Automatic annotation (TrEMBL), chain A:
This is Spore germination protein KA. Residues 1-12 have a biased composition (Basic residues). GO terms for biological process: spore germination. It comes from the Bacteria. Residues 1-26 are annotated as: Disordered. The chain crosses the membrane at residues 280-301, 322-341, 386-403, 409-429, 441-467. GO terms for cellular component: membrane. Belongs to the GerABKA family. Residues 13-26 have a biased composition (Polar residues). InterPro entries: Spore_Ger, UPF0353/GerABKA_families. Keywords: Membrane, Transmembrane, Transmembrane helix. Coiled coil: none annotated.
TrEMBL record, chain B:
Residues 24-197 form the Spore germination protein N-terminal domain. It comes from Fonticella tunisiensis. Transmembrane segments: none annotated. The lineage of its organism: Bacteria, Bacillati, Bacillota, Clostridia, Eubacteriales. PANTHER family: SPORE GERMINATION PROTEIN B3. This is Spore germination protein KC. Belongs to the GerABKC lipoprotein family. One of its GO terms (cellular component) is membrane. It is found in: Membrane.
Amino acid sequence: MSYKKLSYKKKQPNSNQKNEVIKSSGNSLTQDLKENLERIQETLGNSSDIVVREFYAGKYGQMHIGIVYVDGLIDKNIVQRFILEALMLNLREAELDSTVFLQENELQVLKKAVLPAGEVKEIVDFNELFLHLLSGDTIVIINGVSRGMAIGTKGWTDRGIEEPGSESVVRGPRDGFTETLRTNTALLRRRIRDPNFWIETRRLGRRTKTDVSIAYIKGVASDRVVQEVHRRLDSIDIDAVLESGYIEEFVQDAPYSLFPTIYNTERPDKVVSAILEGRVAILVDGTPFVLLVPVVFIQFFQASEDYYHRFDISTLIRLLRFMCFFLALLVPSFYVAATTFHQEMIPTTLLVSIAAQREGVPFPAAVEALLMEISFEILREAGIRLPRAVGSAISIVGALVLGEAAVRAGIVSPAMVIVVSVTAISNFVSPAFNMAMSIRILRFLFLILASTFGLFGIVLGLIAMVLHLCGLSSFGVPYMSPMAPLIMQDQKDAMVRLPRFGVFKRPNFIRGNDAVRGRNPGNRK
Amino acid sequence: MKKGMALIITLIMLTNFLTGCWSKRELNELAIASAIGIDKSGDGYQVTVEVINPSEISAEKGTGQRSPVVIFSATGKTVFEALRRITLESPRRVYLSHIRVVVLGEELARDGIAKIIDFLSRDSEFRIDFYILAAKNTKAESVLKVLTQLEKIPANKIAQGLEISEKSWSSTHAVKLDELTNDFTSDGKNPVLTGITLSGNADTGMTLENLKSSKLSSIQRIGNLAVFKKDRLVGWLSEEESLGYNYVMGNVKSTITTVECPGGGKLSVEVLRTKSNIKGKIENGKPKAKVELSMEGNIGESECDLDLTKPENIRQIEDALEEVVKEKKKLAIGKAQNLGSDIFGFGETIRRENPKAWKELKEKWNEEFERLSVDVSVDAKIRRTGTITNSPEQTKSKK
């Protein structure tokens, strides 16, 4: 396993780099090896996973060398073969009185002639040293030289690339991001072999110093958006970034809105296609969830599979998703409004049938709906947290409580069970989990509106919702584009998806300068 | 700013709870009415409401032990008053949006229905898609309380029966509120309503026992048309005349017309399509009307000796058919002229044709109508003879 050096691009001094945790006078390494090693151990509190190895190398053992690494973060194989063997065995046979040796100091000799490792960096002070050490590099220090070397030996136990659990597809690639940033960037690089595909990395979190990468294609992504992403990331000052959600909360446009203004996904193909549309991806080490900005409303209804299936099927399925959005949002409230305020709207036979079911139900329809919706939410939440072993037991109990038993006991009407089930199932059609969450919450608001004002309340709620949606924006892009503002050209891939040979321009509302996706049959005159 | 907005939104949301579910009606607090019957009672009205008993109607819960509908009835000085008085009997508020039929008692109809129309159009709870019928020789209450088979709700039975007979027999005419109101307010047209009679006894018909036999001892029968003059019922058309009326109006969608064959025997034609054109004009200061009807039909049954494979024979049948239909129309027009009520809207046609003359004619239109000369013409076409041409009997005798 070999890792390329991260390329740090510091446009502005990073605020957390100024406040290093280790504060001691004389931050630079000294010439005395013993002193240096002692200081390392002392600072790290003699933690048991720190391995310090001292030995004498060279033909006559004239070089006193110490290496330090964190057990578990390094690949033992690399340390053994390319550092220990090289220094202890190969160095013994090397002709150290060559001209090279005379011109350079020991450290340079090791770096340039002895160590067969790919990733070697010179370090001068302890801050750097600890950063490398704790990231999984191996530190080599020579007695008499006030510098050290960090050799890239990162290698820890990793969850392999698996199919993402939250976003499965019938057709399409089955790989998903992992918790390791480098693996994730590799998944993207493997798909875009374009020199303009840039990955800029920075560290966030005073204590965690988590690697956060920004990936985009220079020219395709709008410079304005890239700058905005940098600006917003710069302003973050927290001690820990454990998941991309930490960052999401800081950089999103409308933190109080129920609607997500940042997209997250576990699927590399989704990220790549977004990057190719001109979006910017934010990858965070330690989580498989990658953030995408800017995001628009309709994006939450577009699944990556839409682009793998035929366009007609995809279009119909997309329309189905929009329908399900409204079903999940409005079915319970519409049912309550119709049965308690607007009975004249229901066809007579249906009304009689509903009325017959409601005979003997003690609660008003609104309370009945709330009761069922809340018990469903409880079941759903319990279902996520349950230990696998008891999962099936709960689902049986849940189905009984929500279905048969509640109806038999006369607490709810069968029609309400259907309403709640339709709502629940429609809710799961949404390809984006965070949009499904907003619908879940809004559903209750609409239920209250419907039970107090009937259809009038629902319509008021819808108007308020649309106004709110139109007022949102994500990294400078209006949330409802390309509907509001209406961009006719981008309708080709919004509510519907036209065949790919008809869509040869990147979405107008996101992209940078490079608009054309290619010359294809539809484009050729 | 944002906090202020959030506060305002929260406050607005909270006001929702203050309304206390304003004008909310839970389904199980409603008595869903399927029909209203209005009869005369002294100076005022007797209003009968047929309320659906949902648990008896539903497929799952129905026990068959109780009546699918409940009849409540009350009297009052006005219809509205009587309706509200029903709450003295009914445990739930009567909900009128889903009524399918309104039945007006004959006595009331003879007295005038204008005041009823006012209530039906004024009350906001009514949807206007119900049918209005006139009870013949009986009270509206009796018609509504007779239980029915196949359709559990009597009102549904009446409404669907009306729709079906209008479509395939055409002696009836399903009248909704808007048509009734239009005809009533027009100077040149008088309304008709389909009549409904009761065969058998209403009191035995209202028991579940009645439903247990295959041949119901009492049943509502949709009958012929009632002729109104302004808002008062003045007479009834016979079945022939009702058919004639619908032929004139072009209401016939499908019906069976039997003709005498030129060579003897009878033959039934299934009428498939009719198109009627009513024209009115002033000629020599006298109003004249013309009714042109074109119709198409198939031979549905034949008992005659004619060779149906020959086109000239078919033409003979067409001629006979034209005569028969013409006769029916003349019958209907004659009856209407006798009753002095222009139910065909000839006056309306003349008004459209010649508004100036109509202004003078308007005042004495009823008398003018009685003497109106109406030119009736029919153009009939036989399209097909069914799956066979000549009847088997005929084929056999030829051999």
